[in-house]
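I hope you will forgive my troubling you with a question about protein structure. The record follows directly beneath this note:
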Amino acid sequence: MLKLVGAHNGNGIGTQEIVTRLGEQRSAVQRALQSLVAEGLVQRRADGRLYELGVEAVHLGRATFRQSPLVAKYQFGLQRIARLTGDTVFLSMQVGDFVMCVHREEGSTSVRAPRTRVGDLRVIGTTAGSLALLSTFADDAVRAMFERHRPAFARPGSTSRACAGTCRSRARPAMACSATT
């Protein structure tokens, strides 16, 4: 159930949809949701009808990546790239419609990238790195992503803001956006 709520974290998910997707009794789902809310793993959105991940779920996720085998596997490569380029280098992974920064290596240049910290979640396609991931999605998936997260793509500073309406093929999103940012 927690994974299902996490997969719908951007828009939230209602009790009935959880019941339908899990095939469980409504009363069992409601009791489980109450327990998850009490533990801070899930919270109700402002409208009171939909659920999203709670603060404790975020804290657990961040703690997991401090000693992650994924980070251990790529850390030396990331350090080398940061050293050779002088740029800050990020390792991110897909979590539903989002990417989570799981590691950050500072480069030697005086220009820093303060906006992205380890544990930050961003909608896929709203950062330079996640735009590359979005470019591998099928056209219908790209359009659906833009529809589900339209406000995120319209924010000032969003890497893909300028190309939100022009991404028509798998290869074009990254090229179109990199030319405009």
In short: The radius of gyration is 18 Å. The first strand starts at residue 13 and ends at 14. The chain has two domains: 2-59, 91-180.
